[in-house]
């Protein structure tokens, strides 16, 4: 496993990181989740990701239990705040009240004194950015959070956060978590240039497009049992990809991976990691063997001719 700096910080994170969205605390049995986390740790993955909203806190509880056996300094853990965690008007968003209360609740579920990264899970148009950043600053000063991050913020919103942080001498955002894959490249036009300008690292989620880029789905009528597309709870997120145009692209990409002699998932992850602005690719392994397979993408360099062929296949 190779490691990269998280943006311009000194924090080193594994090129492949392990998330818990749609899996731990609900979609996957706890013993399997723990085995998968243990396998990832043994492979050198030191970066683990969760969120308060994932199964209403259950994912944080499972991840916390699984990591409890390891030295706290040996891994990097991220969680998130924004989405509703209750029915009250202040049980959501990025207000100072909700951020501080959510951070304490997350730490309690995780069984930890601090998290390395706290992400704003989305942008909150109803709360001043200055209020959100001040809450971040206080959490960092209190030692409950080490680094501030955002997820799925626009380039303009990241710019705004930087201006406000500099104006009031607050801690800056250092990491962004956007969706990015061969099939979803929206961050390339604006997000990546702005992030490079301010030294913000990218920890990209869904780099395998919810499993489409593993090659397991070949036609609309061929959905393997036990896959995300076959799960009533999970398939709502994969449906955007289930169309003839996408399957045509995937077939071309599979042929390129075959010529390289590597699994399609490894090629897809290596393609994401080709950019030095990407600090880590966040996978969602539901079984230990998936973590093993995906970890092999770390350090794999796609040849120039393969990169050209991939661009042509995606055109």
Description:
The strands form two sheets. This protein has an eight-stranded parallel beta sheet, with helices on one face. The two termini are 32 Å apart. Helix 3 packs parallel to helix 4 (129-141) and helix 5 (155-168) runs parallel beside helix 6. It has helices at 30-42, 58-67, 96-110, 129-141, 155-168, 191-198, 244-260, 264-272, 288-295, 304-314; strands spanning 3-5, 12-14, 16-18, 47-49, 76-81, 115-120, 145-151, 173-177, 201-205, 278-283. Strand 1 and strand 2 (12-14) form a beta hairpin. It contains ten helices and ten strands. The protein has one domain (3-211, 263-300): NADP-dependent oxidoreductase domain (TIM Barrel), CATH 3.20.20.100. The chain is globular, with a radius of gyration of 19 Å. It has 315 residues and is of the alpha/beta class.
